[in-house]
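Record 1 of the preview.
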Amino acid sequence: MRALSCLDAGTSFERIDEVARAAGMDAVVIGDAVATNPELCAQLEESRLRVVLNLPLLFDPELLARRPETLAVTSTGGRASVGWLQMACPRSEDFWTDRSDVLRTALAAVRPDMVSLDFARTFVFWERVGPDTRPEQIEHGCWCPRCLDGLEPPADREELGRRAAQAVTARIGQAVDLVRESHPDVPIGVKVVPWRMADYDGAREWACGQDLSAIAPLVDFLMPMSYSALIGRPPAYLREMHRELRETAGRPLMPWLQAAALDGSDPLPVDEIAAMLDAIEHDAELGYCVFHLDGIADRPDVLKLLATRAPTSNDVKEIV
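->
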């Protein structure tokens, strides 16, 4: 499977299909907002495209705007709201109750071929953490009273991180149960922050709350956000990260390819995209997802690159 990300539920099916065909894609990643567009749901159901339903767990700007008290508190003492990124406390039952209703609605609106659990972590703006960032400079959370309860002040970063990982793992388990209620046989993956185990003193766990040894038994595969250009790493970093993820979790990989720049910056050079694609193709047992439709739709060089690298049906394994 090679899936083109299109999380804008207002995008027409015709545009999705046109860009997917031009890039040699056989699937599309859609978000939970697709439930608001029944026409698109029906067209996808009848189309050639397979569907990856992307379900954010602790990210929902509209819900957090209505329930600001459920926002996480970061290590700097402020609310977990920086630019477009706002994230909930993983222990907030009020947030999770309302968020679960959104997930159920999306799962009822579309029949997915795969489910991707997104924002299955605590607050970290990992896209802004460069190779030279010191661990103590990483703003993360949650440090709210719920999460600090029972810890002697001053709170120990590592202990709080272990508790955060437990809370995140519990939410992943609950999300998996929601998916299984309506789609018992659909493969479920979880997105993973693109850091190696030792990076930033093990920040994938203490800052992000992602304990892969605990998460792996709950899901079928991992989806690393393999954006080496974004995080200032060479493509070889991806190969090392993929190897470590596979060895740690014992799960196949379906990485994400960065084919577009973020935050309106200059377009990524096609040779940088090709170098990331080389690393991803080598390690993608289940195929990969491409970020994102609007970023590549008007770039014939990128569309050609992706189309010429489309595998045959025998090149990609299926989850058994």
